[in-house]
Design brief:
- The complex is a heterodimer.
- The two termini of chain A are 32 Å apart.
- In chain A, helix 6 packs across helix 7.
- Chain A is mainly alpha-helical.
- Chain A is globular.
- Chain A has a two-stranded antiparallel ribbon with strand order 1-2.
- In chain A, a hairpin with a 3-residue loop joins strand 1 and strand 2.
- The N terminus of chain A is likely disordered.
- In chain A, 31% of the residues are buried.
- Chain B has one domain: Tgt2/MlaC (Nuclear Transport Factor 2, Chain: A, Roll), CATH 3.10.450.710.
- In chain B, a hairpin with a 5-residue loop joins strand 2 and strand 3.
- The chains are: A mainly alpha, B alpha+beta.
- Chains A and B meet through helix 10 and helix 11 of A and helix 4, strand 5 and helix 7 of B.
Chain lengths: 246, 203
Protein backbone atom coordinates (compact mmCIF):
# COMPACT_ATOMS: atom_id res chain seq x y z
CA UNK A 1 0.00 0.00 0.00
CA UNK A 2 2.89 2.33 0.83
CA UNK A 3 4.95 1.52 -2.26
CA UNK A 4 2.78 3.47 -4.76
CA UNK A 5 2.97 6.55 -2.53
CA UNK A 6 6.78 6.38 -2.45
CA UNK A 7 7.02 5.84 -6.19
CA UNK A 8 4.63 8.72 -6.91
CA UNK A 9 6.63 10.98 -4.62
CA UNK A 10 9.87 9.96 -6.36
CA UNK A 11 8.44 10.59 -9.83
CA UNK A 12 7.15 13.99 -8.71
CA UNK A 13 10.52 14.99 -7.27
CA UNK A 14 12.36 13.79 -10.36
CA UNK A 15 10.04 15.76 -12.63
CA UNK A 16 10.50 18.88 -10.50
CA UNK A 17 14.25 18.43 -10.79
CA UNK A 18 14.32 18.06 -14.58
CA UNK A 19 15.06 21.74 -15.47
CA UNK A 20 17.91 21.90 -12.99
CA UNK A 21 19.33 18.71 -14.39
CA UNK A 22 19.30 20.02 -17.95
CA UNK A 23 20.90 23.33 -16.97
CA UNK A 24 23.85 21.71 -15.28
CA UNK A 25 24.95 19.50 -18.16
CA UNK A 26 28.08 20.90 -19.76
CA UNK A 27 29.85 18.98 -22.47
CA UNK A 28 33.08 20.83 -23.29
CA UNK A 29 35.62 20.33 -20.58
CA UNK A 30 38.81 21.99 -21.72
CA UNK A 31 39.64 25.35 -23.15
CA UNK A 32 42.22 26.58 -25.63
CA UNK A 33 44.81 26.89 -22.87
CA UNK A 34 44.75 23.14 -22.41
CA UNK A 35 43.42 23.20 -18.89
CA UNK A 36 40.01 23.61 -17.39
CA UNK A 37 38.42 27.02 -17.29
CA UNK A 38 36.52 27.08 -14.06
CA UNK A 39 34.60 30.27 -14.77
CA UNK A 40 33.17 28.64 -17.88
CA UNK A 41 31.41 26.32 -15.49
CA UNK A 42 33.10 23.11 -16.58
CA UNK A 43 33.59 21.97 -13.03
CA UNK A 44 29.92 22.31 -12.17
CA UNK A 45 28.82 19.64 -14.64
CA UNK A 46 26.33 17.18 -13.16
CA UNK A 47 26.30 18.84 -9.73
CA UNK A 48 22.50 19.12 -9.88
CA UNK A 49 22.05 20.69 -6.47
CA UNK A 50 19.03 22.98 -6.80
CA UNK A 51 18.23 22.60 -3.08
CA UNK A 52 21.65 23.71 -1.84
CA UNK A 53 20.11 26.32 0.45
CA UNK A 54 18.31 23.51 2.31
CA UNK A 55 21.08 20.97 1.99
CA UNK A 56 23.86 23.16 3.35
CA UNK A 57 22.36 23.71 6.83
CA UNK A 58 21.59 19.99 7.10
CA UNK A 59 25.17 19.23 6.08
CA UNK A 60 26.46 21.61 8.77
CA UNK A 61 24.20 19.90 11.30
CA UNK A 62 25.58 16.51 10.22
CA UNK A 63 29.17 17.68 10.66
CA UNK A 64 28.27 19.02 14.12
CA UNK A 65 26.50 15.77 14.99
CA UNK A 66 29.50 13.80 13.83
CA UNK A 67 31.99 16.00 15.69
CA UNK A 68 30.14 16.00 19.02
CA UNK A 69 28.32 12.67 19.08
CA UNK A 70 29.30 10.13 16.43
CA UNK A 71 33.06 10.67 16.47
CA UNK A 72 33.51 10.49 20.27
CA UNK A 73 31.28 7.42 20.34
CA UNK A 74 33.29 5.75 17.58
CA UNK A 75 36.51 6.53 19.49
CA UNK A 76 35.12 4.46 22.38
CA UNK A 77 33.83 1.78 20.00
CA UNK A 78 37.31 1.55 18.50
CA UNK A 79 38.68 0.30 21.81
CA UNK A 80 36.91 -2.98 21.04
CA UNK A 81 39.41 -5.30 19.30
CA UNK A 82 39.39 -5.05 15.49
CA UNK A 83 38.49 -8.73 15.11
CA UNK A 84 35.28 -8.26 17.09
CA UNK A 85 34.33 -5.12 15.15
CA UNK A 86 34.93 -6.91 11.87
CA UNK A 87 32.73 -9.78 13.07
CA UNK A 88 29.96 -7.25 13.76
CA UNK A 89 30.47 -5.87 10.25
CA UNK A 90 30.30 -9.38 8.74
CA UNK A 91 27.16 -10.14 10.73
CA UNK A 92 25.37 -7.00 9.55
CA UNK A 93 26.56 -7.51 5.98
CA UNK A 94 25.18 -11.03 6.09
CA UNK A 95 21.78 -9.68 7.12
CA UNK A 96 21.75 -7.59 3.95
CA UNK A 97 22.31 -10.57 1.63
CA UNK A 98 18.61 -11.55 1.24
CA UNK A 99 17.91 -8.02 0.01
CA UNK A 100 20.84 -8.32 -2.40
CA UNK A 101 19.25 -11.50 -3.78
CA UNK A 102 15.99 -9.60 -4.42
CA UNK A 103 17.86 -6.79 -6.19
CA UNK A 104 19.85 -9.30 -8.24
CA UNK A 105 16.53 -10.74 -9.43
CA UNK A 106 15.01 -7.29 -10.04
CA UNK A 107 18.06 -6.34 -12.13
CA UNK A 108 17.84 -9.70 -13.97
CA UNK A 109 21.43 -10.26 -12.87
CA UNK A 110 21.93 -13.93 -11.94
CA UNK A 111 25.51 -13.29 -10.79
CA UNK A 112 24.35 -10.92 -8.04
CA UNK A 113 21.38 -13.11 -7.13
CA UNK A 114 23.32 -16.39 -6.90
CA UNK A 115 26.43 -14.91 -5.28
CA UNK A 116 24.32 -13.19 -2.61
CA UNK A 117 22.22 -16.32 -2.09
CA UNK A 118 25.22 -18.57 -1.57
CA UNK A 119 26.97 -15.98 0.57
CA UNK A 120 23.96 -15.94 2.87
CA UNK A 121 23.73 -19.74 3.02
CA UNK A 122 27.47 -20.31 3.59
CA UNK A 123 28.02 -17.46 6.03
CA UNK A 124 24.89 -18.25 8.05
CA UNK A 125 26.03 -21.84 8.52
CA UNK A 126 29.80 -22.31 8.25
CA UNK A 127 30.39 -18.62 9.00
CA UNK A 128 28.85 -18.97 12.47
CA UNK A 129 25.67 -17.07 11.75
CA UNK A 130 27.48 -14.52 9.63
CA UNK A 131 30.17 -13.56 12.16
CA UNK A 132 32.81 -14.75 9.70
CA UNK A 133 32.96 -14.14 5.96
CA UNK A 134 33.36 -17.83 5.17
CA UNK A 135 32.04 -17.38 1.61
CA UNK A 136 34.71 -14.83 0.70
CA UNK A 137 37.59 -16.56 2.43
CA UNK A 138 36.83 -20.06 1.17
CA UNK A 139 34.77 -19.71 -1.99
CA UNK A 140 35.93 -16.33 -3.28
CA UNK A 141 32.37 -14.98 -3.17
CA UNK A 142 32.60 -11.25 -2.52
CA UNK A 143 29.76 -9.13 -1.19
CA UNK A 144 27.86 -7.37 -3.99
CA UNK A 145 26.16 -4.63 -2.02
CA UNK A 146 22.87 -3.64 -3.66
CA UNK A 147 19.96 -1.36 -2.88
CA UNK A 148 16.81 -0.07 -4.51
CA UNK A 149 18.61 3.10 -5.64
CA UNK A 150 21.05 0.98 -7.65
CA UNK A 151 18.24 -1.15 -9.05
CA UNK A 152 16.34 1.96 -10.16
CA UNK A 153 19.58 3.30 -11.66
CA UNK A 154 20.03 -0.01 -13.47
CA UNK A 155 16.67 0.50 -15.16
CA UNK A 156 17.47 4.05 -16.19
CA UNK A 157 15.78 6.06 -13.43
CA UNK A 158 17.83 9.28 -13.16
CA UNK A 159 19.48 10.06 -9.84
CA UNK A 160 17.70 13.41 -9.55
CA UNK A 161 18.85 16.31 -7.42
CA UNK A 162 21.41 16.03 -4.67
CA UNK A 163 19.92 15.68 -1.20
CA UNK A 164 21.59 15.78 2.21
CA UNK A 165 19.74 13.64 4.74
CA UNK A 166 19.93 14.41 8.45
CA UNK A 167 22.57 12.18 10.10
CA UNK A 168 22.65 9.75 7.14
CA UNK A 169 24.46 12.24 4.91
CA UNK A 170 24.71 12.68 1.13
CA UNK A 171 22.09 11.13 -1.10
CA UNK A 172 19.96 11.80 -4.17
CA UNK A 173 16.20 11.71 -4.69
CA UNK A 174 16.51 8.27 -6.24
CA UNK A 175 18.67 6.87 -3.45
CA UNK A 176 16.51 8.41 -0.73
CA UNK A 177 13.46 6.76 -2.29
CA UNK A 178 15.50 3.57 -2.52
CA UNK A 179 16.32 3.66 1.18
CA UNK A 180 12.66 3.96 2.09
CA UNK A 181 11.73 1.20 -0.32
CA UNK A 182 14.45 -1.08 1.04
CA UNK A 183 13.15 -0.57 4.56
CA UNK A 184 9.92 -2.24 3.48
CA UNK A 185 11.41 -4.72 1.02
CA UNK A 186 14.12 -6.18 3.27
CA UNK A 187 13.03 -9.75 4.16
CA UNK A 188 15.11 -9.62 7.35
CA UNK A 189 12.91 -6.77 8.59
CA UNK A 190 9.61 -8.55 7.95
CA UNK A 191 9.66 -10.50 11.18
CA UNK A 192 11.34 -7.84 13.31
CA UNK A 193 9.70 -5.81 16.05
CA UNK A 194 10.12 -2.04 15.89
CA UNK A 195 12.78 -2.24 18.64
CA UNK A 196 14.77 -4.90 16.84
CA UNK A 197 14.55 -3.00 13.57
CA UNK A 198 15.65 0.19 15.32
CA UNK A 199 18.53 -1.66 16.95
CA UNK A 200 19.64 -3.06 13.61
CA UNK A 201 19.54 0.41 12.03
CA UNK A 202 21.55 1.87 14.90
CA UNK A 203 24.11 -0.94 14.70
CA UNK A 204 24.33 -0.43 10.94
CA UNK A 205 24.98 3.28 11.47
CA UNK A 206 27.73 2.67 14.03
CA UNK A 207 29.34 -0.01 11.88
CA UNK A 208 29.22 2.16 8.74
CA UNK A 209 30.70 5.17 10.57
CA UNK A 210 33.43 2.92 11.97
CA UNK A 211 34.28 1.22 8.67
CA UNK A 212 34.17 4.50 6.74
CA UNK A 213 36.01 6.52 9.39
CA UNK A 214 38.82 7.46 6.99
CA UNK A 215 36.40 8.73 4.34
CA UNK A 216 34.35 10.74 6.86
CA UNK A 217 37.49 12.32 8.34
CA UNK A 218 38.73 13.11 4.86
CA UNK A 219 35.51 14.75 3.69
CA UNK A 220 34.18 16.42 6.85
CA UNK A 221 37.37 17.61 8.53
CA UNK A 222 40.19 17.81 6.00
CA UNK A 223 38.61 19.13 2.83
CA UNK A 224 38.97 22.80 1.92
CA UNK A 225 35.23 23.01 1.32
CA UNK A 226 33.65 19.97 2.99
CA UNK A 227 30.20 20.51 1.47
CA UNK A 228 31.47 20.74 -2.10
CA UNK A 229 33.96 17.90 -1.70
CA UNK A 230 31.37 15.58 -0.17
CA UNK A 231 28.88 16.38 -2.92
CA UNK A 232 31.45 15.93 -5.66
CA UNK A 233 32.65 12.63 -4.22
CA UNK A 234 29.10 11.32 -3.82
CA UNK A 235 28.07 12.34 -7.34
CA UNK A 236 31.15 10.85 -8.99
CA UNK A 237 30.79 7.59 -7.09
CA UNK A 238 27.11 7.44 -7.96
CA UNK A 239 27.91 7.81 -11.68
CA UNK A 240 30.62 5.16 -11.36
CA UNK A 241 28.14 2.69 -9.88
CA UNK A 242 25.59 3.47 -12.60
CA UNK A 243 28.16 2.80 -15.29
CA UNK A 244 29.81 -0.27 -13.85
CA UNK A 245 28.31 -3.56 -14.92
CA UNK A 246 28.47 -6.39 -12.48
CA UNK B 1 92.48 -6.59 -43.97
CA UNK B 2 92.02 -6.41 -40.26
CA UNK B 3 91.14 -2.76 -40.53
CA UNK B 4 88.44 -3.58 -43.12
CA UNK B 5 86.99 -6.33 -40.94
CA UNK B 6 86.98 -4.03 -37.96
CA UNK B 7 85.41 -1.15 -39.83
CA UNK B 8 82.63 -3.32 -41.31
CA UNK B 9 82.11 -5.98 -38.71
CA UNK B 10 82.20 -3.85 -35.58
CA UNK B 11 79.39 -1.54 -36.65
CA UNK B 12 77.33 -4.60 -37.62
CA UNK B 13 77.96 -6.22 -34.24
CA UNK B 14 77.27 -2.91 -32.52
CA UNK B 15 74.04 -2.42 -34.46
CA UNK B 16 72.82 -5.92 -33.72
CA UNK B 17 73.35 -5.35 -30.00
CA UNK B 18 71.78 -1.93 -30.23
CA UNK B 19 68.74 -3.37 -32.02
CA UNK B 20 68.40 -6.06 -29.37
CA UNK B 21 68.66 -3.46 -26.64
CA UNK B 22 66.09 -1.32 -28.39
CA UNK B 23 63.74 -4.28 -28.74
CA UNK B 24 64.03 -5.06 -25.04
CA UNK B 25 63.43 -1.42 -24.27
CA UNK B 26 60.25 -1.14 -26.35
CA UNK B 27 58.05 -1.11 -23.23
CA UNK B 28 56.48 2.36 -22.98
CA UNK B 29 58.25 4.55 -20.46
CA UNK B 30 54.99 5.07 -18.63
CA UNK B 31 54.43 1.34 -18.19
CA UNK B 32 57.84 0.99 -16.57
CA UNK B 33 57.05 4.07 -14.52
CA UNK B 34 53.75 2.54 -13.35
CA UNK B 35 55.42 -0.75 -12.46
CA UNK B 36 58.26 1.00 -10.63
CA UNK B 37 55.76 3.11 -8.76
CA UNK B 38 53.75 0.06 -7.78
CA UNK B 39 56.89 -1.72 -6.62
CA UNK B 40 58.11 1.27 -4.65
CA UNK B 41 54.77 1.65 -2.92
CA UNK B 42 54.73 -2.02 -1.90
CA UNK B 43 58.32 -1.73 -0.64
CA UNK B 44 57.50 1.33 1.47
CA UNK B 45 54.34 -0.18 2.94
CA UNK B 46 55.98 -3.52 3.81
CA UNK B 47 59.28 -2.08 5.07
CA UNK B 48 59.66 -3.57 8.55
CA UNK B 49 62.60 -1.33 9.44
CA UNK B 50 60.70 1.94 9.01
CA UNK B 51 58.42 3.58 11.52
CA UNK B 52 54.93 4.66 10.55
CA UNK B 53 56.12 8.28 10.32
CA UNK B 54 58.98 7.31 8.00
CA UNK B 55 56.61 5.32 5.80
CA UNK B 56 54.25 8.26 5.71
CA UNK B 57 57.03 10.64 4.69
CA UNK B 58 58.24 8.23 2.01
CA UNK B 59 54.70 8.00 0.59
CA UNK B 60 54.34 11.79 0.55
CA UNK B 61 57.66 12.08 -1.31
CA UNK B 62 56.59 9.38 -3.78
CA UNK B 63 53.26 11.18 -4.29
CA UNK B 64 54.97 14.53 -4.95
CA UNK B 65 57.43 12.98 -7.41
CA UNK B 66 54.90 10.86 -9.26
CA UNK B 67 52.29 13.56 -9.80
CA UNK B 68 52.70 16.41 -12.25
CA UNK B 69 52.08 18.93 -9.49
CA UNK B 70 52.59 21.97 -11.66
CA UNK B 71 50.06 20.82 -14.25
CA UNK B 72 47.54 19.75 -11.60
CA UNK B 73 47.87 22.98 -9.63
CA UNK B 74 47.23 25.03 -12.77
CA UNK B 75 44.50 22.76 -14.03
CA UNK B 76 42.41 22.83 -10.88
CA UNK B 77 42.72 26.62 -10.53
CA UNK B 78 41.93 27.29 -14.20
CA UNK B 79 40.92 30.88 -14.80
CA UNK B 80 41.91 31.92 -11.27
CA UNK B 81 45.46 30.90 -12.14
CA UNK B 82 45.44 32.65 -15.48
CA UNK B 83 44.10 35.88 -14.05
CA UNK B 84 46.56 35.98 -11.16
CA UNK B 85 49.90 37.76 -10.96
CA UNK B 86 53.27 36.04 -10.69
CA UNK B 87 53.57 36.44 -6.91
CA UNK B 88 50.06 35.13 -6.32
CA UNK B 89 50.78 32.14 -8.51
CA UNK B 90 54.01 31.35 -6.66
CA UNK B 91 52.32 31.57 -3.27
CA UNK B 92 49.43 29.40 -4.46
CA UNK B 93 51.69 26.77 -6.00
CA UNK B 94 53.83 26.50 -2.88
CA UNK B 95 50.73 26.04 -0.71
CA UNK B 96 49.11 23.57 -3.09
CA UNK B 97 52.18 21.33 -3.40
CA UNK B 98 52.24 21.01 0.35
CA UNK B 99 48.51 20.55 0.76
CA UNK B 100 47.68 17.93 -1.85
CA UNK B 101 49.81 15.01 -0.62
CA UNK B 102 48.67 15.59 2.93
CA UNK B 103 45.04 15.59 1.88
CA UNK B 104 45.34 12.25 0.13
CA UNK B 105 47.88 10.50 2.34
CA UNK B 106 47.47 12.38 5.61
CA UNK B 107 44.65 10.29 6.98
CA UNK B 108 46.25 6.90 6.30
CA UNK B 109 46.71 5.42 9.72
CA UNK B 110 48.96 2.56 10.71
CA UNK B 111 46.16 0.01 10.31
CA UNK B 112 45.49 1.23 6.76
CA UNK B 113 49.13 0.76 5.76
CA UNK B 114 49.50 -2.57 7.55
CA UNK B 115 46.26 -3.74 5.97
CA UNK B 116 47.65 -3.44 2.42
CA UNK B 117 48.65 -6.91 1.28
CA UNK B 118 49.70 -6.20 -2.29
CA UNK B 119 49.37 -3.80 -5.20
CA UNK B 120 49.17 -5.27 -8.68
CA UNK B 121 49.09 -3.60 -12.08
CA UNK B 122 45.99 -5.13 -13.69
CA UNK B 123 45.63 -3.02 -16.83
CA UNK B 124 47.73 -0.69 -18.90
CA UNK B 125 46.81 0.84 -22.23
CA UNK B 126 47.63 3.78 -24.44
CA UNK B 127 44.65 6.11 -24.74
CA UNK B 128 46.23 8.61 -27.09
CA UNK B 129 49.82 9.10 -28.17
CA UNK B 130 51.88 9.61 -25.00
CA UNK B 131 48.78 9.35 -22.80
CA UNK B 132 48.16 6.18 -20.86
CA UNK B 133 45.68 4.57 -18.53
CA UNK B 134 46.78 2.24 -15.76
CA UNK B 135 44.70 0.27 -13.29
CA UNK B 136 46.07 -1.20 -10.11
CA UNK B 137 44.36 -3.41 -7.61
CA UNK B 138 45.09 -2.97 -3.94
CA UNK B 139 44.35 -6.12 -1.97
CA UNK B 140 43.64 -5.54 1.69
CA UNK B 141 43.67 -7.73 4.75
CA UNK B 142 40.26 -6.72 6.08
CA UNK B 143 38.43 -5.04 3.20
CA UNK B 144 37.43 -5.82 -0.35
CA UNK B 145 40.11 -5.11 -2.99
CA UNK B 146 40.18 -1.54 -4.30
CA UNK B 147 40.79 -0.63 -7.92
CA UNK B 148 42.81 2.55 -8.35
CA UNK B 149 43.10 4.03 -11.84
CA UNK B 150 45.68 6.46 -13.15
CA UNK B 151 45.99 8.82 -16.08
CA UNK B 152 49.64 9.02 -17.11
CA UNK B 153 51.29 11.41 -19.51
CA UNK B 154 54.73 11.10 -21.07
CA UNK B 155 56.56 14.39 -21.52
CA UNK B 156 58.80 15.09 -24.51
CA UNK B 157 61.78 14.32 -22.30
CA UNK B 158 60.40 10.78 -21.90
CA UNK B 159 59.59 11.33 -18.25
CA UNK B 160 56.18 10.15 -17.06
CA UNK B 161 53.87 11.74 -14.56
CA UNK B 162 50.43 11.14 -13.15
CA UNK B 163 47.81 13.70 -14.13
CA UNK B 164 44.87 12.14 -12.34
CA UNK B 165 43.94 9.14 -10.24
CA UNK B 166 40.57 7.64 -9.43
CA UNK B 167 39.29 5.22 -6.83
CA UNK B 168 35.74 3.88 -6.98
CA UNK B 169 35.01 6.35 -9.75
CA UNK B 170 36.07 9.40 -7.74
CA UNK B 171 38.62 11.47 -9.63
CA UNK B 172 41.16 13.48 -7.71
CA UNK B 173 41.25 16.09 -10.46
CA UNK B 174 37.48 16.55 -10.70
CA UNK B 175 37.08 16.75 -6.94
CA UNK B 176 39.93 19.21 -6.58
CA UNK B 177 38.59 21.34 -9.40
CA UNK B 178 35.16 21.66 -7.80
CA UNK B 179 36.66 22.39 -4.42
CA UNK B 180 39.11 25.03 -5.66
CA UNK B 181 36.38 26.62 -7.79
CA UNK B 182 34.11 27.04 -4.78
CA UNK B 183 36.92 28.82 -2.93
CA UNK B 184 37.92 30.87 -5.97
CA UNK B 185 34.39 32.23 -6.23
CA UNK B 186 34.80 33.74 -2.78
CA UNK B 187 38.11 35.55 -3.30
CA UNK B 188 40.16 34.36 -6.26
CA UNK B 189 43.62 32.81 -6.03
CA UNK B 190 44.71 34.74 -2.88
CA UNK B 191 41.75 33.32 -0.94
CA UNK B 192 42.46 29.82 -2.26
CA UNK B 193 46.06 30.19 -1.09
CA UNK B 194 44.95 31.45 2.32
CA UNK B 195 42.70 28.44 2.80
CA UNK B 196 45.38 26.03 1.57
CA UNK B 197 47.86 27.45 4.08
CA UNK B 198 45.32 27.05 6.86
CA UNK B 199 45.12 23.30 6.29
CA UNK B 200 47.48 20.80 7.95
CA UNK B 201 50.70 20.49 5.98
CA UNK B 202 52.63 17.34 5.13
CA UNK B 203 54.49 15.69 8.05
Amino acid sequence: MRAPVILTLAVFLLCAAEPALAKSTIADKTNSHGYYDIKDGAATADVNDPWESFNHPIFDFNVGFDRHIAKPFISCYDTIPGGVRHSVDHFLTNLSEPLNVIHGILQLNPKIAFTSFWRFVLNSTFGLGGLQDFAKDNAGLHNMDQDLGKTMGHWGVPAGPYVVLPIMGPSSVRDTTGRIGDWFADPVGWGETIWLAGGQTLADGIDTRDMKAGVVEHLYYEALDPYVTTRSTYRQHERFEENSKE
Amino acid sequence: MNRIIRSVLLPVIYLSFATQAFAEDSTPNCRRFAEDLRQEMVTIVHDKNSSFKQKHQALVRLFQEALDMEWIAQNVAGSYWRNAGEQERKAYFKAYVSYLPNFYIGNFDEDDLNGILDVTLTKFKEREPKQYFARTQITQKFDEPIDAEFELVEAQSGKCHIHDFMAEGVSMLDTQREEIRSLGEKGGLPYITERLNARPQAM
